[in-house]
Each structure stands twice: as structure tokens, then as C-alpha cells.
Amino acid sequence: MTHDTIIDSFLKTPCLYEAKVSPDLKWAVWVWANVGPNADVYIAPLDARAAPRKLTDFGQDTSIMSWTEDSRSIIVHHDYDGDERYRLYRVDIDSGEAFPLTEEHPSCFIRGGQMTADGKYVVYGANYDFDAKKEIEPTILYRHDLQTGERVKLAQPKKPAFLWPLLNAQGTRIIYQRNDRHPQGEQIWMADIEGKEDKEILNFGDKVKVSASWHPNGEDVIFISEAGTYRKVGIFHAADSSIRWIIDDAARNIEEAYVPRGSERLVIDEIRNAQNFISLIDIGSSTEAAFAELQTAIPVAQMPDGTWISKYYHSKQPRDLVMHSTSAIIRSITDVFGRVKYGPADLAKAENYVWNSIDGLKIQGWLYRPAAKSIGTVVCIHGGPTAHSEDEWNMDIQYFVSQGFNVLDPNYRGSSGFGLPYQDAIKESGWGGKEQDDIIEGIKSLIQDGIAEEGKVGVTGTSYGGYSSWFAITHFPKKYIAAAIPICGMTDLVVDYDTTRPDLRGYSEEMMGGSPKEVPERYHDGSPIHFIQNIEGKLLIVQGAKDPNVSLENVRAVEEVLHQKGIRYEKLIFEDEGHGISKPENQKTLLLRSVEFFKEAFSS
Q1: β-strands 134-145, 121-129 pairing
Q2: Helices (H) and strands (E) in the chain, counts
Q3: How far from 165 is each of 113, 122, 209, CA to CA, in Å?
Q4: In the chain, which end has fewer C-beta atoms inside a 10 angstrom radius, N or C?
């Protein structure tokens, strides 16, 4: 492929995000980015009688919240150029007509969105007091009457948290999470739709996290609880408030458990070295069996004939929604390769790459290499930091490789996918600690192995990856970091704490061991803004102007210091983007400039 063909093909690759199957098991809906100027919802019948069709077109990135129980509508939301202030709609799947459920340009952050089976109410969280008519920090759980417009408070946590309510199939109860007790902990509460009861149902300690989802029967709650150095899986029975433990094994790293649509069996997603190993458990007998022989197939629903609908992907396979048996794909529902001008042979394979960090801890990452001799190395750092990179198709990585770069995608300490001790290790010293050594030691290992060259290594990433890029360019010499492209990355951790969404401050406190007032030295030492004088490599700052997570104030603050220190830099501000650069035309601008930027840096 020519250069123009490569970038245009990658930019037109459908990127599949949410995928949900209807309660009647007749329809699949999903979100595709890069098919048009914005991410939109698409739909297809599962009997293959019609091709996928576009269902939404708001001119804004749109996400799926839920199906209605009659399988005739979906609840979606969109924000406005990435500001994350969502508006909810009900969309009829036959006509595509959209019916607004909440206000345009809300002055709050809405979380979730599900409709009761009778269509009378929609349930969501909002950090807004509709009685006092003002935005607040904690997120309140609301029942919104769609006929009268009345909003009833069903629950009101004391502290800000990422409250995402889940309504059961009958529309009678809602489960949601609170972390009123401690920033490190998370408890599960249950409220009823009438507003008569709101009680804590799962609490295993102030500093212990619990996540939960409904069993399709609407009575049982599937949950995962931390238990010291591992996680265990249980079922909470709402009828008598009893708990039954399903898996309690310290040797297993379970990160997700749920019962998919159409199935009675429990899906267990066990992550080993950043790779998914899926199994199914018969809840009655507790017998467990492997799910499928396909590489990375994540179950979405089981059909009446026993076949499965799953998300299927790896580094040479963009995310696809497929129907399959336990051993083979029957057909692709979304047919990604039918929509692009390249095939698996044109893509780079993710190689497992392991090195020792500064304290001897083994760090894993994914290494991608071009067919010919590389012209340099780009380190793409994932965000989170509580997340991990998989063996998965990534447009940025594949494009860098196509242009002749090696790419390292490191899973530094703090990443999920390697067990709780590894994930929690980042908290020992807070952000800007040994996780940054993990990344630089990976670069040194590449140089030692003859894969990378001194003076020809650059870093980039979004969110925490952007922060890590800032940290690298301000702490390590040019022979290791010749260039950095931080995207929506924190520069001053105090400024970030003060200007981010209120429901994210608890996460900063958890990671840093307290607020800026409680541990000021950690926030100071972890902030790249205080080490600007050390920059030796080239710097390109990238930011979405409407980012509510890592606000534009981070850029304004660091620019003052850059000017004071006489440090030269470049800047790309995208006025119509939020936390990350998502619009295809903006992605093209960024990718083209990034490649030229790294080439210039490596040749100087």
C-alpha cells in the first residue's frame, strides 16, 4: 500500500466499542468510530436477513447505554465535542427516530441511563441538585418520570464517586457503587424504584473495592471483591441478603465476572500476563469449563441454538462482532475486513517482550516491528493507569510501524492484567514513581538488545500516557527520550486535582495517598511542571480544548514555565475534542504530524 492508502485505510477502519444484544436475542447494536466523522450506533438482525445499518446521526460521538426490555428501542447518549456532559435519548430501532430524555447541554455529568420495563421512568446519576438547581460534587441517583418530568432522588452519596446505576430487568431495583468510606474502597448499594429503600449490600472493608452486575433473573447480583492479594467471585441473593462464594482462589487473577444475555452460565474473565482466558461456570453445580478456542473472544450473548455472539480481536484483527461455536467462527456480523483495503498480512504482530525494572520487577509489554530496518522507536504508553494493553489492533501503533518505527507498548506497574499486588504497586510512592522507571528500563532493554538506538526513541500516550510522556521528557536525557508527544496529559498534579471532574478526585487521592493538602510533597515531586528545566528532547503538546478530565489549565500552567525557562516546543490544540483525539480528520492531522515530528527528532 502507498503512504496515503495506508493512513486513509487505517483511519477508515471501523473501531468497535460497545456491543449489546437485545433481550429477545434478535438484534445486535454496537458503536463504530471512524466509519464517519463521529462515532455512531449501528444495528443488524442476528438472523443475517439484512446488512448492518446506521441508527444514530447526532453529529456527535454517541454511546449505547442500554436496551429497553421490549427490544424495540435503545437508550443512547452523546456529549458535545468531548465535554462529557451527556444528553440521553431513546432511539426507536425501526424508524431511527430519537426522543430526547434529558436537557440539551446539561450543566452536570450524567451517568448511566436505563428505562423501566413499563417505559415510565428512566434511571441515571447526575451531579446536580434539581431541587436547588445547582451543580454539586457528589452524584445523586435519580428516577426521572418521562411523563411529568419529575425527578425523585433515590440515593444521595456523601462524596463524589463514579456512580453508574444498574437497573434490574424487572425495573424494581438499582445497584450502584459508593466510596464514601475511603478513596481506596468501593461498596455496593441497592435502592428500590419507589424510593423507599436505599441500603448497603456489599461491604468487605473501607479500603476494599467491590464491582457488581445483575443476573438476568433480576434477583441475584454477581460481584467481584478484592481479598488481600487477589479477587474472588460471589453471588448476592436479594431475597434473603445471603452470599454464596463461587471462586475463592488466590492463584487466579479474575478481573470480570458476569452472566451474558441469553445464558444462565457465569462468564469468568481471568487475565494472565495481559491476555484474556475466558471460562464458563454452571452456577448451580459450580462446574467450570473453557469457553472457546478462538484467540480473545469476549462473550456478549448466547443464542437459543447454543452459538455465541462475541467481540473478537487481536493485533492483526480489528475488533469484530462474530457469531461462533466453541471452535470456529460461523460468520462475522460486523465484517470489518470487508470494509477496509488491507488484510492481516499488512499488519504487525504483537510480540511479548519482558524486561527487568530498576528493582528487579519483571515488566511485560508488546513489541511491534516493521518488516525492514527501523528508523527509530516509539513508546506508546497506555492511560489509566489502572488499565492494560492487550494483544489488540491499535491504529496509532500500526501506523507508526507502517512508517518504519518499532513500537513498544509497556504494561508498567499499576497496570491491571497482572494481579492486585502488581496493580497496587503504583500506590507505594504515588504517580511519578517506579512505574516511570519501568518505562525507561524498557527503553534501555530495547537498546541493549539492539532493537532501539540511543537518540532515536520517542514517547507518546493519552491521559496517564500523556502524563508519563511529560514525566519522561522532564526526567531522562535525550539519548533515551529524544522526543515526546504528550496527549491530554497532566503537567501539574495540583492543577489537575483542582480542575478535573469531581468524581475523579477520589482516584487521585487513592493513587497519591491523599489530597494535595494531605501529601503536598508527593503532588509536587510527581508533577512534571517542576522539572521543565531538564528537557533536552523535542516536545509537541497535544490537547483537546473541551477535556473535562485533564483540563486545558494543565497546558496553560506548563506553557508559562516553558516560556520562563526558554524551552522551545510545539503545540496542537483541537477545539472540538475532549479527553483524547477521536475525530478522524483530527486523528489524521495528529498522526501525520507525529510521524514527521519523530523523524525530525531522530535525525537531529
Answers
A1: antiparallel
A2: 10, 36
A3: 8, 11, 16
A4: C
Interatomic CA distance for residues 497 and 472, integer angstroms: 21
- Which of 251, 295, 287, 249 shows the shortest CA–CA distance to 266? 287
Provide the CA 54 distance to its chain's centre, in angstroms.
24
In order of 120, 173, 174, 218, 499, the CA distances from 169 in angstroms are 14, 9, 10, 5, 38
Task: Let me know: does 22 contact 67? Beta carbons within 8 Å.
Answer: yes
Summarised one tens digit per residue, pLDDT across range 37-63 is: 999 999 999 999 999 999 999 999 999
Secondary element (H or E) of residue 496: helix 493-499
**Residues 11-19: what's their mean pLDDT?**
94
- 87: nearest Cα among 96, 99, 97: 99
Mean pLDDT, range 596-600, rounded to an integer: 97
Cα Rg of the chain, angstroms: 24
DSSP state of 8: H
Angle formed at CA 559 by CA 556 and CA 565, multiple of 5 degrees:
150
DSSP 8-state code for residue 580 = B
Return the pLDDT at 109: 97
Residues 178 and 161 sit within 8 Å (Cβ to Cβ): yes
Spatial distance between the Cα atoms of 379 and 399, rounded to a whole number of angstroms = 13
Altogether, the residues listed in the chain come to a count of 604
SS (H, E, C) 117-157: CCCCEEEEEEEEECCCCEEEEEEEEEEEECCCCCEEEEECC
pLDDT at 13 > cutoff 80: yes
139 class by beta-carbon count within 10 Å (0-12 exposed, 13-18 middle, 19+ buried): buried
Taking a C-beta distance cutoff of 8 angstroms, is the pair 235, 243 a contact? yes
287 falls in which pLDDT band (50, 70, 90)? very high
List, for residues 221-252, the tens digit of each pLDDT value: 999 999 999 999 999 999 999 999 999 999 99
Within a 10 A sphere around the Cβ of 569, how many other Cβ atoms?
A: 16
Domains plus CATH for the chain? Answer: 359-603 (3.40.50.1820)
Q: Check: CB of residue 552 under 8 Å from CB of residue 523.
A: no
Q: Give the alpha-carbon dihedral of 5, 594, 343, 331, to 10 degrees.
A: -120
Q: Report the distance separating Cα 6 and Cα 570, nearest Å.
A: 26
Q: Amino acid identity of 572?
A: L
| Residue that the C-alpha cell 431513546 belongs to | 90
